[in-house]
Every structure is written in structure tokens, then in C-alpha cells.
Known about the structure:
The chain is mostly beta strands. The radius of gyration is 29 Å and the shape is globular.
Amino acid sequence: xxxxxxxxxxxxxxxxxxxxxxxxxxxxxxxxxxxxxxxxxxxxxxxxxxxxxxxxxxxxxxxxxxxxxxxxxxxxxxxxxxxxxxxxxxxxxxxxxxxxxxxxxxxxxxxxxxxxxxxxxxxxxxxxxxxxxxxxxxxxxxxxxxxxxxxxxxxxxxxxxxxxxxxxxxxxxxxxxxxxxxxxxxxxxxxxxxxxxxxxxxxxxxxxxxxxxxxxxxxxxxxxxxxxxxxxxxxxxxxxxxxxxxxxxxxxxxxxxxxxxxxxxxxxxxxxxxxxxxxxxxxxxxxxxxxxxxxxxxxxxxxxxxxxxxxxxxxxxxxxxxxxxxxxxxxxxxxxxxxxxxxxxxxxxxxxxxxxxxxxxxxxxxxxxxxxxxxxxxxxxxxxxxxxxxxxxxxxxxxxxxxxxxxxxxxxxxxxxxxxxxxxxxxxxxxxxxxxxxxxxxxxxxxxxxxxxxxxxxxxxxxxxxxxxxxxxxxxxxxxxxxxxxxxxxxxxxxxxxxxxxxxxxxxxxxxxxxxxxxxxxxxxxxxxxxxxxxxxxxxxxxxxxxxxxxxxxxxxxxxxxxxxxxxxxxxxxxxxxxxxxxxxxxxxxxxxxxxxxxxxxxxxxxxxxxxxxxxxxxxxxxxxxxxxxxxxxxxxxxxxxxxxxxxxxxxxxxxxxxxxxxxxxxxxxxxxxxxxxxxxxxxxxxxxxxxxxxxxxxxxxxxxxxxxxxxxxxxxxxxxxxxxxxxxxx
Length: 731
């Protein structure tokens, strides 16, 4: 009826008259509400934010999108079909792939079909249902006395029976309510579902799930801990400990929620997960704490590496209920040539042999294995809501640990998912959601090198990244996803809203000025997202006008230009662990490599670099490895000689930019980390090796600063973190 109304309102009275004869005695109000609710469930629609069915209170309903009716191949359509107007949100499960990054001795787990008996039962039910629906349609066509209303009532009865058998609806409620300046760093539910252990900048806490009563977990003085996983006894936890002063990788400890002396399990490790029987602990190690999977047998307390990611990164693992396997999301290096993309892999806990059971570029890092026949994972939403992730589940063959059938959505929320923990009976999930937001802040440069208080400059709730100023120092150029894809904006220092400089359907890279300051260079990322696709570096006049192609090359990373009188422009790309640098003409012309600038690097923060305004110096982190001594490498491009400056107080450099006089740099990044969060700040480093800390704090993470051409202001990129835990039941 809604489709046939062609966008007009269908009243509640019309629905009642169509669904029930006049002599029927039912609760019409409840009946109509139930019918519309089921329709919305089928369409995965929302009453609060409708996409298809709009409610007009106390009047009726309206279908919100255009409908086109088409004829069948014979030209006759007694039951018109509706043209698809939106893609289905249920992702198909891809066939398994053998991991190409597994150890050489690995072999794929033998694939088997789902149990034959269950398959035959499902096929029989499906066939019977098809026969029943076909019979009804035949009756409708062949017996004119059977009305469309009667057919609708029959189908509604079938839907009612299915709904009544599906059990209670999903229940979701918040367990924590921390503010953005005190975000949770971890949160895990106990196996019996009674307690939530969580940490934040103020300490480690234990909360009773049902009553909400919360107590601080007693720990030795100076020992902070981030809970990772519960032991089966419901009293002990595996927790990670960060020593902020020693600048070492995190260590793993066994702690008791009732107090006592912690027991060290491993000198280095993160994201530990205890097996269901408590006999094993899987955890991560590596340069970025997530490239290798290690295993501890708790009775021996000896750690051994069972999976080497070969440069790939892993999301936290989920144990199978029998403890014989574990699953996790594998995220390839951005420049990986394997081509498998984001995927869920299942590993044998004894041999480390792995197999890919699901490949999808939308996969988040979290996964859960609540029972032997279900796997839960996070999927990214489609644009323009691609900042959001939600939970889905797929059927699992317990004998092969392979997925089959179609996936089903569990949640429909608007925040990224950072972690999933599940009770031993599979009935409760603690869902840690974490939302990062990057913004531009402005600060004034005062006398004696001091900095004024930061003032938030971008006032939206999306991500904003500054990269350049206009030549007159009156406006900042930045990238933002406030209208969907990453677009380029310009905002005056005294304005509260920016102007769109470059829009469109593509995701765009950070703008940087050409040597004459009249145009901005920006990158158009390949639409396919493949590392082998060419990137297009474009040039657009700041005064207005169409964009023109400046350069098209594969794998363009960063790009910078000096200022007149220098005409040097450089771009970089990473090939096989080496960062290579090339000079180019922004007007379109010759490209030549700078061999002296070549350095080991990956696609992480260690790949950051900056070209001095006079075109003489190229600055970059001394090492791309966060475990090595931190510092700057400054290459004199005129002589080809490097200079190294040690930065012991900044172990992880996130970004850098030269001062207008080319004599010093502003360097930002992380100064330390603890179980309650991180410390970050800004350093001022000059060419003589003098280092001065200008900004330091933990309320938000400062990554880098871009000085204005006149040297009076800084545009600072910093991000805030908001995270809390929700409880899911009846999923």
C-alpha cells in the first residue's frame, strides 16, 4: 500500500481497513504499530532516522523514496516488482583463502561442507516455504475471489509466526559514562558476566554489571595496569603495564582484583587473551606491538612465537570455545603486494597454521567467538557514514571453523568499535567503542619562544587536518571529511566556518603551496584503493579556477615545495621498505630521483618528512622504528650530508614542519604512554641541536604544528578521544 501510494500518506484508518475485515475485533492501534515495526525491521530502517518509511504522528505513514514499477518479460505484471533502490547491507561470506603470510610449514585447514543433516533440513524448510508462497500466488492469479488483502493477511501471519520464534529484541545499555577528557583505555567483561574491569587515566576499576557498584582495584604504588582478559576463576586478570619513564614496550602481568602482588608473565606484550580453560595466553609483540602472535602456556610460563605477520598487523584475537583455535583480523601493510586486503584468519593454537575465512576491506579490528557456531566481527558502514562501524555475525561450521551463509547485522550505531569481550555462555558482550576526532587549534607565538593557550579553530565534529597557510598568513588550508569524502577547505583566522576549496567525490590529500604561493598542490587518491594504481597530484589556483594535472605516478606519499627564490618541489614514495624521494616540476615536467635522500621506512609515522622553505634541508625521523633511539635526520640537499639530532623526550615523532626562516623545526608526537593514556607535545629544534619543549600534556594528543609564513601563529593538529563500554544482550 505504501508503494502504491507513490509518496502520498497512507492513513492508519486505511491500513486498518485493508488488514482486517469490519467484523474483526483486535487492538487496531497495536496491530498497525506492529506491522510497521516489522516492515522497518525488514528494511533495516529506523523510526528515529527513517530512510524509507516516514511516520506522521496520529495520521499515517509515507514511503520516502521514489518507486518505479516495471513489467515482467511477458509485458504482464499482476504482482508488480519494485526496482532496487539501495544495495543490500548483508555482506556475502567470501570463500576461504590460504594465508600467504603464514609460516612456511603451514598448510590450509581441510575445508568441509556444513553438516549434511542441517543442510538438508534447511533445504527442506526453504522448499516447503517456496511451495507455500507459490501456491498463494497461484491462488491469487487463478482465483479472482481471493483478494490482495487476504494474501497480505496470510503473509503477515507467516511473518508473525517467525517473529514470535526469534526471541527477544537486542538489548544495549551503557556500562560506563566517562567524559572525553578521561576516556577508557580498556574494558573487558568477566566470563560469568558479573563484572566489568576497565581502566582510564585515573586508575583500574571493577564494576558490577547489574548493580553498577564500582570500586578501585588495589595495586602496588607506582604500578598502573590496563586489563586485557579475565582468567576463568573470575578473580584474576591479565593486564598490560607501561613504564613511562623507561620507554620500554609494555609488559604483561597477572593481577588479582582483590589485591596482592602482581606476577609478571612476559617482558614484552600487548592485547593478551586467555584461553577458555586458562591454560594458554595469546598476545602480540612487534615494532608496533601487533605484528607477531605469541603464546604462553600458563603452567610453564614460557612464551613462544607462533605467527609472524611479516609486516602485517593483527587485531585482538578471539579464542574458540574449545580453545583449539583462535581468530583475528589481519590488516596488511598499506604497500603490501599480496593483495588479500583486510581479512579474518583462523589459526591452529598448537601449530600456528592459519586460513582466511573472510576477506572484506570494511573489516574493523575487533572479533568475538561467542559459541561454536557463530563468529562476530565489526564492519565499516558505507559512505558517507564510513566513520562508523557496527557488529555483524556469521554462521560457523564448528568442525572446520569456516563461515557459510549470509551475515546478519547486530548493531546500528555511530561510533567505531575498539574491542569486544564476551561471556563464556555467549549471552553477554561488552562492547568498547572509541571515537577519535582530529581538529585544528590555533596558538600565538609569544616572546622568548612561549606559546599562548590553544584555541580550537575547527568547530565541527568531523576530522580536520591542517597542512598549509595562505601566503598572507590570514587563512589555514586543511583537509576535512565534514561533508563525506576528504575535501580541502580554507578558513580565515577570524572565522568560525571554512569555505570549500576543492570538493567532489574523490578523497583528497593535504594541500601544500607551490613555490610562488599562487597555487595549492593536492593528491587525488586512487578510487580503487589498490597500491598499484597511479595517484594524481593536482594544482589549483588559490584565487579560483579549474584544477590541472601536475603529476601522475604510482604510490605518491608526501609532497612539499620550497618558497621562492627556490623552485624545488619533492614527493616521496615507499618501495620495499625504502622511502625514495623525487624532485618534480609542479607545472608538469621532468621527475628525477634524489638518491642521497633514500632511507629505510614504512608507511607509519616514521615516514613523515619536511622540506625547508629555502629548499636546502630535508628533515625526517632518524629511524622508523619506535623502539630505537628517537631523533631527527636532517639532510643537506646541497652537500648530500646528513646531520642527526637526538630527541630522547619524543620517542614517537608524528609530524614536523620548518619555521619560516629555515633555521629550526616544530616537531610533534608522543612523549610517553601509560595504562591510562598517552603524553604528547611539541618541541622546537634548531640546526645547532638545541631542543626546547614548548608544549606537553595528556588531555589531547598533539601530532604536529604548521607555522604561519609571518611566524606569528601555529596551526596545531591534535585529537581527542572519547570511549566507553556498552553491554549487549539478546544478540
